[in-house]
Every structure is written in C-alpha cells, then in structure tokens.
Amino acid sequence: MPRRSAVKLGMIPVIDTRQSFRPLCRELVALLRELRAEDWERPTLAGTWLVRDIVAHLSDTALRRLSFDRDGKLPLNPPRPIRDERDLAAFINDLNATWIRAAQRLSPRALTDLYATTSEALSDFVENVRLDGPACFPVSWAGPAGSQAWLDIGREFTEIWHHGAQIRDAVGAGPFSEARWLHDVLAIAMNAIPHAYREVPADVDQSLMVEILGPSGGLWTLRARSTGWEMDEGSQPDPTAKVTMSDEIAWRVFFNALPLTAASAMVRVEGNAALAAPLLRVRSVVV
Predict the structure, then answer these.
(1) Which of 158, 185, 199, 206 has most Cβ atoms within 10 angstroms of its Cβ?
(2) Is 225 helix (H, G, I), strand (E, B) or coil?
(3) DSSP assignments along 152-213, one per residue
(4) Neighbouring C-beta atoms of residue 33, cutoff 10 Å
(5) Residue whose C-alpha is closest to residue 247's, from 267, 217, 268
(6) The CATH number of 191-281 is which of 3.30.1050.10, 1.10.760.10, 3.40.50.300, 3.40.720.10?
(7) Does residue 106 contact residue 115 with C-beta atoms inside 8 Å?
(8) CB 221 within 8 A of CB 255
(9) What whole-number distance in Å separates Cα of residue 281 and Cα of residue 287?
(10) Its pTM surpasses 0.90
C-alpha cells in the first residue's frame, strides 16, 4: 500500500477476515510439508517455542475454537479465579503449555496432517460466522468494547498469521504471498491501542498518528476525547505526536516479537515523545 500524505479521518471499519483463513492456512501447510527435519527444531520469535511447538499450538487453538464456538462445549473452569489480565495470561499460558508438552510425542508429519485437517474445519466454520453477533471470547486486549464477533474472528486470524510469520522467519521462508493479510492483521491490532492508553493522561483533542509504511501499511490516529481515547483510520493535520515504522517492524511490535529497546531504534518519533512512548508497549496478544 503506497504512502499517503493526507487521508480523511474515519472510524476503524469492520475487518472481514473470514475468506482469508483458508488461503492463509493452506499456504502455511504447504510450507510445513516442505520443511526439513532440522527446520522443525529451529528457535522462533515466540519465546522458547520451536517451530514444532508453534505448529502444535495452532492445532490446539483451532480445535478450541471449533469445540467452544462451533460445537458449544463449555470451556474448562480455571483452577483459580481470573481477577485481572495477569491471571488471564497465566491461565492461557498454562493451557498452551499442557498441549505443547503432549505434542512432543508427535512427528512433524503427524503435526502437519493434524493442522491441515483442523485448519480446513476452522475455515469451513468461520466462513459462515455472522460478523455482527456477539463474540465467543471477549478480546481482552481491546478492552470492554472488544466483544463483537468480527473482532473475535479477526483476533483468531491474527493468531494464525503472526504464528505463521514466526515460522517463516525461523526457516528463512520470507513473507506470506498476500500483503493484504498483514494489512488486516495490523488494522485489527489497532483496536488494542485505545485500551492500552486508557491510563495515559492527555488534554482533549491531543492526538497520536501511527503511520505504517510498506505494502501492508496504512494511517491511523489516536485521539483524546472527553470520554477517553478513540482510534480512527486516517490522519489529521498537526498531530501532537507521530510514530512511523515499517509493516515488518509493526507486526513484531504489536505481537511481542521485538524487545522494547530494539523497537525504539527502529521507529521514528516526531512531536511529543512522551505521548508516543506507550505505543511501543501495546500488545494485541495476551502476554
């Protein structure tokens, strides 16, 4: 997407990712079938997870979505009450870890076949989900307003995309074939910013413009209102602060794949640096 000098502000539109699940998943499965044995043991941007662990996790999340959302199975009760975002992160991390440990006994071929099957079933399901209904799972990183079905399904899409990108990075496969997939991922991630800024003080009408360069880029503006922070698509003249980064850096920032010190060196900040600083701590994943 070319760089734009001025775009009229408007609300962030509903992002419909439903038809993108199948081609994204199939492209990822095709890559997995080409990997050598040693590729499955390569470290990734996902903390301690190897390539094989990410593939196992993708099947886990697909099966969870199908079980809870398609089939109506009630989720397991957490062993301890979830009182805040830290408790939620601990619960989800434990769920993830138990599956990863069990998947250690599976071969790369078995892991690939499992994900090929579960991702096709997931694609079948999401293609028929109504976007205006309630979310199956509230999108915690978007705050109380993050309970619409389109954002919940979009969050699922960003999970597949960013974990797939971590695999591609680990094995040197380069970016996915469709730049629009990353554009949608970044547009969905923008919904995390107002919630992340909820305790950042500012005068009404102060603003932060986010410009993401590259084929998947775009322009978005965060504005302080009397009712709180609001995010719009587009730009406005003379923002209080402006942050510019590439699309390849942006997804790494928002999906916790780049240390803060490294991210700070790879973005350009203009204007009020204090207002821009919290942006590099925004995460559109549960961490």
Answers:
(1) 185
(2) strand
(3) HHHHHHHHHHHHHHHHHHHHT--S-S-HHHHHHHHHHHGGGHHHHTTT----TT-EEEEEEE
(4) 12
(5) 217
(6) 3.30.1050.10
(7) no
(8) no
(9) 11
(10) yes
